[in-house]
Amino acid sequence: MLSTRLLSAPLRGALFVVIASFGFSIMNLLVRMASEELPVMEVTFFRNFFAFIFMLPWLLRVGIGELKTKRIKLHFIRSLNGIAAMAVWFLSISLLPMAQAVALNFTVPLFATLGAVIFLKEVVKLRRWIATAFGFVGVLVILRPGTQDVSILMLLPVLAAALMAISVLLIKTLTQTEKPSVTVFYTTIFMTLFSLVPAIFVWEWPSQKIWFAVAGVGLLGAIANLLVTKALAITDASSVMPFDYTRLPFMALIAFFAVGEVPDIWTWVGGGIIAASAIYIAHREARIRRRAQAELSTRDTLRPASHAPRGTV
């Protein structure tokens, strides 16, 4: 079997993301199955609980000493928001055609762009604004207001995307001072505890089949997240982000064979528009970041020797 180490970093990153996308798609199917028997908040708890169990060996290997933080409040807020995003997403998967929900959920980068301007005071140029607007046109293509009744349920994946975008911004803030292992540790612990509280009030013991489903949700969620983290660690996000959108064809195929769902043409067209705009935004952000790094490197290179600290040779 060909080792992934023989592949270049971008190819390995792309492979990790494609496998993760397939894992997320299977996870969504298991969420649908579990939600037919259990309340969504209980499924949310099991997702976090089993993810914590499966990630425990990795967390222990990192070592408690490496998990200190001075930003516990921000971890707390990020985890509360993460629970809300997960619960809304699971609810949308349980009530809507799965491919349609996935296509609408592609709007996460669009909301993240808006949030970066509002909360992080980032400067967004005209082309990124046009791409963001273009992405929201894709949402309208899928929903088609005026030609069909737009149920409030159809807005659930968009709400989930907005909440996920807030998580992206919070993680972006945390990574300025925190190691990824620290963020993963506190997020896993807090989200498990926070999801347990509402789950207790609606608790129903799963059947044997559903035990396997909720355990699979946790396992696949943990593995897929680690694969994405690994991909982002070895290559630039803009190189692998296009492969994240394989979730739509994966989800469409799985939903067709598992439950007989067939997405309409507007789901494909709208999903494609949203994905194209998000990919463009990612490439623009990567180009701006590389340019800023190059300018910083150039300034360091051209800095006069008289600026060197005294005592150096």
Main attributes of the structure:
single chain, 313 residues, mainly alpha, globular, membrane
Descriptive report:
InterPro entries: EamA_dom (IPR000620), EmrE-like (IPR037185). The chain crosses the membrane at residues 12-33, 45-64, 76-96, 102-120, 129-146, 152-171, 183-203, 209-228, 240-259, 265-282. This is DMT family transporter. Belongs to the drug/metabolite transporter (DMT) superfamily. 10 TMS drug/metabolite exporter (DME) (TC 2.A.7.3) family. It holds the Pfam family EamA. With 313 residues, the chain is an all-alpha fold. The chain has one domain. The chain is 76% helix and 0% strand. The protein contains 12 helices and no strands. The chain has helices spanning 9-35, 40-62, 72-95, 98-105, 108-118, 126-143, 156-174, 180-201, 208-234, 237-244, 247-259, 265-302. The longest helix has 38 residues, at 265-302. The radius of gyration is 21 Å and the shape is globular.
